[in-house]
Amino acid sequence: MKSRCRFTFVLCFVFCSLAFSQDLESFEKRTTVKKLANGLTVIICERPEAPVFSFFTHVDAGSVQDPLGKTGLAHMFEHMAFKGTDTIGTRDYVGEKAALAKVETAYAEYIHERDKRIDRNDEKVKQLEQAWKDAITAADKFSAPYNNEFGKIVESEGGEGMNAFTTWDETAYHYSFPVNRLELWAYLESERFLHPVLRQFYKERNVVIEERRMRTDNSPVGRLLEQFTEEAFVAQSYHRPTIGWISDLNTFSATDAQAFFDKYYVPSNMVVTVVGDVKASEAMPIIEKYFSRLPVRPKPDEAGTIEPPQNSERRVVLHEQAQPLYLEGYHRPDYRSPDDEVYDAIADLMSSGRTSRLYRALVRDKQIASDSEGFTGLPGNKYPHLFAFYAVPIPGHTTQEVADAIHVEIERLKKEDISDEELKMIKTRAKANLIRSLGSNEGLAFALGTNQARYDDWRELFRSVDRIEKVTKADIRRVANQTFVFDNRTVGIIEFAGPPPSAAAASQGGGQ
């Protein structure tokens, strides 16, 4: 049995090595990169497997870039990018533009009075609020009958998977189209960044507020993650929630969102990737025709507050009527660190499947947890961030038990070299995971675009595997010892609080 496992491993290793080299050579031949005169970077990867293509628009701005007092703006603009343009989603843009300006004027007057700390006139606040709502009603009459005209066009023309996401590090937009709709896509995607119209802004803001209530305020895990991140990052902007603080969500305006767009949605801060049944010689002129219309603006300054070294353990404990959970995180450098792939190797060793160290120790052997993993990239990885561990204790076991078990595995990592077989499997899985990620147009567009944005070279996608190939046992011990130390640790815990006192009393009463 042991020799058969070794034989299977060797076959897997050889296959991954051959496939990797072939893919790299192939992608070099099929991938074209061009920086337009306005600073926008375009990547085209020819993949004539089916008459479709996928795109990925990467904007190098996320919630870290949210202005102070206006958290949630990056995410809010992501929502607004689907609301249409001066020609899509409107009945009469000339009238709508004037009506939307009145909405902003009314809102500014309302907020000015509402947020006064001294001499606020509550009756005037009510009057101004009503005037603002009346202005919204008037502006809505100019909107097209459907709330999502942009999406309707995409879907009616065969588009699929239309979506977007905002993280701490970036904002991205993506969907897939039949290849004969390439020019329509180029027009639509460039148009929504050339002529965005922030119609129905405050209605959509209410949607985001509800999203916050559902995912954070009414979720024990959501509350823990928000408070844990806030505790771990005192100075650096990772402590801001992507969804935004509720007071900011109830305050920022469409004018604020437009200012955010004007600063960060600039061509030099964007990468557009197209992958599919397209020829670069034919597609690039079409893309350049439409995206070159985006005006040149300065690339935003990336300076930000640097998180000072942590010199004591920090803890967040929530007492909830919910499943207990243990989480701990350690500060580590950003993705540009020479040790980035060492952290990836540790994450793989500790968490990759049922053979990982944490699963075997806590779930299979000790049977004290239903799940346990270690991972890097919390909450993002563009800036110095956290390597984290978590475990979910099963009934009859405590968060302290799973914490102790995690620490045993961490100490083992610091004191003992990993085995030759473990190191080989880490490197083999890195190759296999890369090949797997290139399997779809969507995944490839995402990978190429993200690496181009982060490194200014999509080839770093493949070089990361070269770097992980150079990771040694000594590297893993060194990084573990310098990172996983008590003073560098932030802990987050959900403890089961039991039923509320009134419920407990009622239960006792019913039993008598």
Q: How would you characterize the overall build of this protein?
A:
The chain is an alpha+beta fold. The chain folds into 2 domains: 41-90 and 143-291, Cytochrome Bc1 Complex, Chain A, domain 1 (2-Layer Sandwich); 314-501, 2-Layer Sandwich (Cytochrome Bc1 Complex, Chain A, domain 1). The protein is 51% helix and 16% strand. The chain is built from 19 helices and 11 strands. The protein has a 6-stranded mixed sheet, sandwiched between helices. The chain starts with a helix and ends with a helix. Residues 1-22 have low confidence and may be disordered.
Number of domains: 2
Tally of alpha and pi helices: 19
Query: DSSP strand (E) fraction?
Result: 15-25%
Instruction: Give the CATH superfamily of the largest domain.
Output: Metalloenzyme, LuxS/M16 peptidase-like
What number is the mean pLDDT?
91
CATH class identity of the largest domain: Alpha Beta
CATH architecture of the largest domain: 2-Layer Sandwich
Structural class assignment = alpha+beta
Along the chain, the helix and strand elements come as HEEEHHHHEEHHHHHEHEEHHEEHHHHHEH
Q: Globular, elongated, flat, extended or rod-shaped: what is the shape?
A: globular
What value does the Rg take, in angstroms?
26 Å
Order the strands across the largest sheet as they lie in space.
Answer: 1-2-6-3-5-4
